[in-house]
Amino acid sequence: MKTRALTIMATREQDQSLVADFADKLGITDDAIPALESTSGNKKSRGYIVPAFGWHPWFSHQIFVDGKGVIPSKLNHYRMAISPSPENDDDFIATLPDPRPLSHLLDQTRSYLQKYPYAIVGELGLDRAFRIPGNELADNRYERDPALTPGGREGRRLSPYRVDMHHQRKILKAQLNIAGELQRAVSVHGVAAHGVVFETLEETWRGHERRSLSKRERKRRATLDAAHQEEEFSEADEQSSNLGGPKPFPPRICLHSYSGPVDTLRQYLHPSVPAIIFFSFSLLVNFSSTSSKAVAAIQAVPDDKILAESDLHAAGEKMDGLLEDIVRKICQIKGWTLEEGVKQLRSNWWHYIFGKKLGNEDGAE
Fold it and tell me: Which parts of the sequence are annotated with region: Disordered (predicted)?
């Protein structure tokens, strides 16, 4: 593997402890940061894993909200958490795991974040398109890959059921609140729900928006030279990246493999948004079919807010190839040289993970 640092994200119950195991062995530590910060190539770091802990929306129906002290039965929970309600399909509900209380999930996530100071929260989000797998195999010849973590689709046919959007939003907001409490970045999944994702995020920072400039202040700012403006904007980003104490919203948010329209993207870039918003792109998701929407989004994202990712479930040569291809694609669309693009993307990743701009000693900014 050529990649120097990568993020491993949990998605469901079965892989939270697996991510923690990797973090114990290979997680980024304070003594690894100088080596990661350097581009000289002669410094080696012990750790190169950024762990991420969270519940993906595909598995959010397996969580019940227990804030009022009421523990629903398995049948009642899934009838409320799934859409359309499987109220006459008890056989399907019987194939699902016993639901876990949200409070346990939040306690576990908080514990992991406190143990691993460079961990982030993810993968979480909203998905309108996903259908919950049933119990019947799509192909009787299917043989399970023992290398895969249990709990995934594993060759099963998709049922007609989806996770109720109201339920998804509750699970998402609770995890966003934890990230805000401990001031960690988050990675957000959004499919066929870009407007609702924005609305949900917006609810977490309501009342904490950045102050709008008055007409006089805007006029004064317009008279500043470009260098001074850039310095002011950089300071504003730094303030949003390090908000000080606990907040109900995360300080930095990545909309991963962003597939939404440019209009929604611009909502996130409004000056009043108090969080720093990044947009990542992958070859597997954003360029698997028509790419016109992805090209328009990449062109619209500010240079210092774009990230590259593999969106692959395994590390190795294939992942390296996917990362190289998407970096080259972004550079082509942005009009960057490969060297310029690598430096910019590296600087952006550093800001997203660590909440601060990368120093200039290696020419990264």
Answer: 208-246
